[in-house]
Amino acid sequence: MEITPEKIQHHIQLAKKGDQNAFRFLLDTYWNDVYGFQLVRTKNENDAEDITIQTFSRAFDKIDTFDDQYVFKTWLITISKNLHIDLVRKRKSSIRHKTIQNEDDAVYEVADDAPTAEDILIQEQNLAKLLKYIKRLKPHYQEVIQLRYFQEMTYEEISDTIQEPMNNVKVKLLRAKKLLAEIIKKK
Asked: What molecular functions are annotated in GO for this chain (predicted)?
């Protein structure tokens, strides 16, 4: 069945009178044109379909305003284009609002790095336990641990302090840490 301009005009006139079959004919005739147009613009099948549905809905609501001097397909495409522009504006506005809102939220969500009284108490208790474990080590291991981790000396400084070669300092520290780990595991 060939679709002629006269047939389209006839169905437009019927649609203006509220004929549901005329609406269905126009929808079936122009669906692919409007959907294809939107698919190229949106590059998203769901958006293209939503806008196409909205296009026909708006066109059928306003069909009595259609001027027969114009091409019906052009009128539909214009409606479709305007709906797409509205959607893009709405999304940009929404994104801008969310971005501004997120920036505002970020200002108020500043993390407090200062330890709480509870954190300080836990650290002190853990330190007291650790010191108790260190006291179980032989005195020369206690000394290297004390110098390295509590006085924060370099290997070279420790070597000078205890007057031993740096390799001995490294071996003593390694051995002290292993022994300390074994003591902690037993508890």
From this structure: DNA binding; sigma factor activity
